[in-house]
């Protein structure tokens, strides 16, 4: 069976290679590799074997078309300014695969439906934040695990760790708006590595802000200044959503020093830096007081590491984990999963699926029926 050029391109980008880099590894010209990806020619057998080995790719992936499709309608891509072309495409390809895998799971399971309120455009950002909290029945309590809130309301969340790959780049987080079978969906991607949960919490709330405030915009067609305005609005939404106005004002009455913000961080799971900005925006502290706090904040080098960053639990997406566990615990096998994915053009190595779906390393091992069977001894 012939390889599908577009799938080869996907595998190359997924592995983090530019066209020139992969051509050099294979010992062929960039033009020859481009011809493979454009379906103009087929690689010779020895080159094909090199491709599979270098890209850590399965033959089935390169030769089987996707049976799923979706329409990308919008992407809020904060990392676009810092990421080069191959890094951005790497993230886009990974996100596409997450969505294909989501579609695959929807064949077997009833996953949470998108649950968003219809908000009046004339409402302020503060009012929209409050109405969303009420709609989701969060009231004004601290949000300990925002990922759980998003997934419960039909928003897809995953996280990638680009520090482990060839590209070794940093992402801030982004949201992709798609349509699958006439259903609108949002997929939020954040970086996955050991860092402050409070900062990641805010990043996720920022992406939620784009979903609530900006889903009718075409982000790519906006000017840089217009994009910056949307980013500022998403930050305002995140602050309002994570730190409800009345409760935060009440808590700030007992704040006398920077150390008091550590206690509030433990309650609200929001960084000290973000709380200082929120306090200034609400007029709880004056501009002079804010500058005094920031000077002290910088003196203690909190911009890089704040108190409690290594203490507060970091949460991971769980929708895909729970979905696969449900399938396996009801008789579905890893072998059947691999076969079904291959037939649908998603024949990826299991370790790549673990990364894409934010599963623990070795997740599939405990469900692999090829492992040795070990039982407890029976009592005599």
**Average pLDDT reading:** 92
Which strand order do you get reading across the main beta sheet? Answer: 1-3-4-2
Shape: globular
Tell me roughly what share of residues is in helical segments.
Answer: 40-55%
Structure classification: alpha+beta
Sheet with most strands? 4 strands, mixed
Helix tally? 17
Sheet-strand content, in percent, reads: 5-15%
Number of strands: 4
Counting structural domains, the number is 2
- Low-pLDDT sequence parts: none
What would the keywords be for this entry?
380 residues, alpha+beta, 434 Repressor (Amino-terminal Domain), four-stranded mixed beta sheet, 17 helices, 7% strand, globular
Give an account of the 3D structure.
Helices cover about 50% and strands about 5% of the residues. With about 375 residues, the protein is of the alpha+beta class. It folds into 2 domains: about 5-65, lambda repressor-like DNA-binding domains (434 Repressor (Amino-terminal Domain), Orthogonal Bundle); about 70-300, no CATH class. The chain has a 4-stranded mixed β-sheet with strand order 1-3-4-2, sandwiched between helices. β3 and β4 (about 185-190) form a beta hairpin. α2 packs across α3 and α7 (about 125-135) packs across α10. The mean pLDDT is about 90.
